[in-house]
């Protein structure tokens, strides 16, 4: 499926990530298939269980394409979640209304970590690949499709903490008191994630994103020694098989780690609003970044959004850049403001 034969009408994201001149500035929005869209909520209401929704290829394709129709974004991102890897690795997760993901039996023992499967678990993720194939068919080559997985530190955080967490006390205790077991866990996650991303590419994903949202919880030294090698291994695995397939690495709240992210082997680096984009662009003249408007800016008027985007365009200038928010769009966001963001980027 991937390779030279495929025709994509809007290549501005692919061109930008390859450093080629683009037809227009590429823009998409993290979590663009989500609750701020009434048409998403309509499909969502057919499912009690979020993972059942993720396992339904027709509905996956439908909500993946909704923001392309509604916002004119330059890429679709597969509707799924970074936590779909947990069940194949032996960790049950449920998404509770108003609470987010909950792991009833979090990974807190060495026995659990050593018993965990590793390698290629793609057979249990066939529904994701089916969702990709269905989406590609229905998209008809209008825009590229972004596939994704969580970064190993972030996925481990949900396994070990049991859900979203303010301080990652359990995961970081594991890191500091049992560094060998921590390394085994991240090594297994890196293997599974590398194979999973390659299979997404094989089934038609045109761009891959690694979302290590919580990497910013680590000191630069701990990130360098304990996480960087695993994320770099995932990217190397993908690049070995798909050297021309662009990879975007995203982290939230990690301005002190940018000088390491530039060495991960990714083509694009997603930053949040805590990074001083102007300074980062100056410091790394040959790198391509993504971001980084504060999602709360979309609670301002469409005019205020347009003004802020103009400032961002002025900051970036002629540099290739992937326009996006610095983190996921929030459920209460007015659709007109999201549309104003995309329209202002396109000018
Ligand atoms: O549109 C897209 O971006 C594609 C789909 C997507 C979802 N989650 C759907 C989703 C993507 C790319 C993700 C990534 C994801 N999931 C991350 C990394 C990016 C980030 O936001 O930092 C993380 C940390 C998760 C884990 C996760 N999934 C949490 C913490 C939650 C609960 C919080 C919330 O927003 O509800 C989810 C649930 C989830 N994943 C929803 C969606 C649309 C909401 C659930 C619903 O609609 O009922």
Can you count the helices? 14
Distance linking N and C termini: 33 Å
Biggest pleated-sheet summary: 7 strands, parallel
Bound molecules: coproporphyrinogen III
Count every beta strand, where a strand is a DSSP E run of 2 or more residues.
Answer: 9
Q: Round the mean pLDDT to the nearest integer and report it.
A: 97
Unreliable parts? none
Q: From N to C, what is the helix and strand string? A: HHHHEEEHHEHHHEHEHEHEHEH
Strand order of the largest sheet: 1-4-5-6-7-8-9
Give an overview of the whole structure.
The chain is an alpha/beta fold and 347 residues long. It has helices at residues 12-17, 38-44, 50-54, 57-71, 110-115, 126-139, 152-161, 169-177, 179-202, 220-241, 258-261, 277-283, 302-316, 335-346; strands at 76-77, 94-96, 100-102, 145-150, 207-211, 247-250, 268-270, 288-293, 321-325. Strands 1-4-5-6-7-8-9 form a seven-stranded parallel beta sheet. Strands 2-3 form a two-stranded antiparallel sheet. Helix 7 (152-161) packs across helix 9, helix 9 packs parallel to helix 10 and helix 13 packs parallel to helix 14 (335-346). 47% of the residues are buried. The model has no long low-confidence stretch (mean pLDDT 97). Bound molecules: coproporphyrinogen III. Coproporphyrinogen III (CP3) binds at residues 30-35, 44, 50, 77, 79-83, 95, 100-101, 148, 154, 164, 211, 213, 252, 328.
